[in-house]
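Team,

Forwarding the record for the chain on the shared tracking sheet. I've put the sequence and predicted structure together so nobody has to dig through attachments.
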Amino acid sequence: MKKNFLRCIFVLFPLFTFAQSELTTSFRFGFMAGTNVASVGELDSKMCLRGGLLAQFPIANPQFFGEVAVSAEEKGGKIKDVNNISQLGIQMDAKFGYNIWGNEKVGLQAMIGPFFNYGLLSRTSTPYSDKPFDNYKGNEDARITMGAIVGARINFGRHWGLGMDYSYSFVNDRFRAFSLSAIFRF
């Protein structure tokens, strides 16, 4: 019994330490910048900008990973060229991902998870008024939005990637956004 236990330790310990060394060396962080096509409520979509930081780390197996991203996101919509709504917020994504396919030159990843968005400002401008209307004034609860995000990424080499995300909020504004971002990881 003691010999079997020692054999298991000698077999499993090197595997465990190898897995730990792979996990610690593959933690990556980087930058992302891009654009999104967003719509708030039933409004027509509007092209907006986004940019931020991200960190990616493996989970238990090299095929699975977690990713946390914090970004400044602009979202908005239009009403028949009369009203223009813009929302600027800080968004945090917590995604769970899977490495579908890849080699040293090209790779494909799929991700899904929740997001949390805190609105910094939201303005509605009309051609009938010189001063934009603050949408959050008197309604502070409307600043917080949560929802789900699903995405895919094509990685080019070790540092570059092209990410595509679709997010849908379940709380407050009910916005939808399709994002396309260039990613650089260290």
